[in-house]
Amino acid sequence: METRYAHHPEDVKKQTTEELRKNFLVETLFEADHVHLTYTHNDRMIFGGVTPSQEELTIKLDKELGVSYFLERRELGIINIGADGTVILDGVEYEMKGRDGLYVGRGTKDVKFRSNDANNPAKFYINSTPAHHTYPTVKIDIKKIDPLHKGEQGTLNERNIYQYIHPNVCESC
């Protein structure tokens, strides 16, 4: 797991392009059969990508976080931006089609990721933050999210915003 530190805005102004890239850019998120994670001191967030291809993958961070298992004191958001796959939480399987999401509450001990097709793998974007309460796991079907339509075509800013982990969708910390 990589670590990114918070920087004062005045320090950032003095950094070269190379320094900015080194301190802020995360270039590799999705690599077959790897879990790539980055810890940022901004909100103690961990984000990254999990790309199971030939093998089932899991997140094993305990010593780095001072816990017995990854979600002992954290919650997790997952969005599958690749092909169909499966997320297994403490033995319960959740089928994840492309663009489906999953909210995973604090206390889930075993988190595994699997692709349905090794030649066309799922790509799970993940985001984890500290949690003070346990909320139930919720599967978030992309077809059931009402996107927010924002911007205008005239200003080249027209877009749809899909809110996965949001009070209108599920409870979270």
Give an overview of the whole structure.
This protein is mostly beta strands. It has a domain at 28-145: Jelly Rolls. 8% of the residues lie in helices and 35% in strands. The chain contains two helices and 13 strands. It has helices at residues 9-13, 17-24, and strands at residues 2-4, 34-40, 45-51, 57-58, 74-80, 85-89, 92-96, 101-104, 111-115, 124-130, 138-140, 148-150, 159-161. The strands form three sheets. A seven-stranded mixed beta sheet has the order 1-2-3-10-5-8-11, with no helix packed on it.
Would you spell out the secondary-structure blueprint of this structure?
Elements (H helix, E strand, L loop, with lengths): L1 E3 L4 H5 L3 H8 L9 E7 L4 E7 L5 E2 L15 E7 L4 E5 L2 E5 L4 E4 L6 E5 L8 E7 L7 E3 L7 E3 L8 E3 L12
Parallel strand pairs: 1-2
Antiparallel strand pairs: 2-3, 3-10, 4-9, 5-8, 5-10, 6-7, 6-9, 8-11, 12-13
Order of helices and strands: EHHEEEEEEEEEEEE
Report the mean per-residue pLDDT as an integer: 91
User: Strands across the major sheet, in which order?
Assistant: 1-2-3-10-5-8-11
Q: Count of helices? A: 2
- β-sheet strand percentage: 35-45%
Point out poorly predicted stretches: none
State the oligomer: single chain
Task: Report the count of strand segments.
Answer: 13
CATH architecture identity of the domain at 28-145: Sandwich
CATH fold group of the domain at 28-145: Jelly Rolls
CATH C-level category of the domain at 28-145? Mainly Beta
- Major sheet size, sense and barrel closure: 7 strands, mixed
Helix content: under 10%
User: Rg, please?
Assistant: 17 Å
Instruction: Name the CATH homologous superfamily of the domain at 28-145.
Output: Jelly Rolls
Determine the structural class based on helices, strands and strand pairing.
mainly beta
Note the overall shape: globular
How far apart the termini lie comes to 23 Å
